[in-house]
Amino acid sequence: MAVIxxxxxxxxxxxxxxxxxxxxxxxxxxxxxxxxxxxxxxPLYVRELGxxxxxxxxxxxxVVGLTTLFTGGALALQIYAGGARFSAxxxxxxxxxxxxxxxxxxxxxxxxxxxxxxASIAAELGTMRVTEQIDALTTLSTNPIKYLVxxxxxxxxxxxxxxxxxxxxxxxxxxxxxxxxxLDFSGANYIKVTVDFLExxxxxxxxxxAAVFGFIVAVMGCYHGYNSGRGAQGVGQATTxxxxxxxxxxxxxxxxxxxxxxxx
Amino acid sequence: MTTxxxxxxxxxxxxxPKQVLRGVTLDVAPGESMVIIGGxxxxxxxTIKCVLxxxxxxxxxxxxxxxxxxxxxxxxxxxxxxxxxxxxxxxxLTVWQNVGFRLVRGKQKMPxxxxxxxxxxxxxxxxxxxxxxxxxxxxxxGGMQKRVGLARAIAAQPEIxxxxxxxxxxxxxxxGVINELIREIVVEIGATAVxxxxxxxxxxxxADKVAMLHDGKVRWTGPVGEMETSGDPYLTQFITGxxxxxxxxxx
Lengths: 264, 251
Description:
Largest interface: A-B, 14 and 23 residues
Strand content of chain B: 15-25%
Order of helices and strands of chain A: HHHHHHHHH
Largest sheet of chain A: none
Mean pLDDT of chain A: 93
Number of strands of chain A: 0
Distance between the termini of chain A: 54 Å
Number of strands of chain B: 9
Order of helices and strands of chain B: EEEHEHEHHHEHEHEEH
Low-confidence stretches of chain B: none
Low-confidence stretches of chain A: none
Shape of chain B: globular
Oligomer: heterodimer
């Protein structure tokens, strides 16, 4: 009987977790639908949108740039070492380029922005929730979703592709720098191979991914901040949840999009 | 008999298993200053949040001028001003932008320069210098933040103003100043006011009428002058601050 009791407890615990997961997914989906419904209805707070584009896009540039620069360099070294096993060292420029624009640029850019922006949005909105600033917005006849959430979601969705495009270029530059200075590639030849090899769709697919990741980053930050619990602990938890869920969803969405774009 | 400005009829609200409001019924006449008192957790803030639509009641009716809130939320909320307990000033905006927040948005929006002038005028009205206008809320003391919150609440000349614990965290002198300002401004603009407070000196300074909430219901209501002689043991215990009486000290 004791064993049955333990199994019962385990199953009940799993059941509760599954129900809570379904509830969370439902709440997030409703939040997204609400945000989308406000996205297409006036007014659009253009001033807020501009401010958020600056905060999310421009101020994330150093983080994304440095990340892709070093990754591009390391990628060149790894591909050279791997390619040397079957005398294919010459593939370094093309594989660095395709790896950066299709995968590493958007994914690393998305993850770095998730760490920086999702956390910041969740902390800001969470603090606003705790200090009743969100209630104050409502009493001032301003819809908080429209004023706080829509500009952030739109800004992240629009700026992440631009950020990733710059990141792609810096990453390729990192590979070029290592290729030319450490692996004895000719500079002109490295650039020619890169340009000849890349197709427009390689770049575009990465930018579409970046837009999706930007949407995920902002929605997760806004959702967790907007629904933050009370006190400092609630805001801290909201920040952690925002970064963790945004990062996981980015990686999951990356797989799905890669499957959609490139599966044979 | 005149239609009450605000009428709550048998309003219930629960959060999970916790029943906060168990049938609140209360009328506030036009131009009246009603103060709601009661211990912590008795549902005072939830009551005004229900009126504003920030919290949706589970049951009961809330009427403004005899009619329920319509579908146009913006028009409905434009009739209200609210001073939050902690001020709830927007950190990312300057003081004048906080005060003029409503003035530069919505159907009756005005140019920014004009809104700034109105905001500075409202700041003057609550005793703040125009130099404060370009500071951020974090640069102000608690008392100044309350005054800015008050200026924001009255900026658009609302018909109804809610004050949630207006003197909490202030020294007695600043509390007196804020009480006086609230009283003056409410009379000046002819608004209906509902104030939530534990501070009995605020009650005496601000109230025309007092309602005491206990256990999610209005326990007593009447003119402020009759408060001391009501004979209600709950009210008497509350206003004397006695640990002995029907209200449990540990809730």
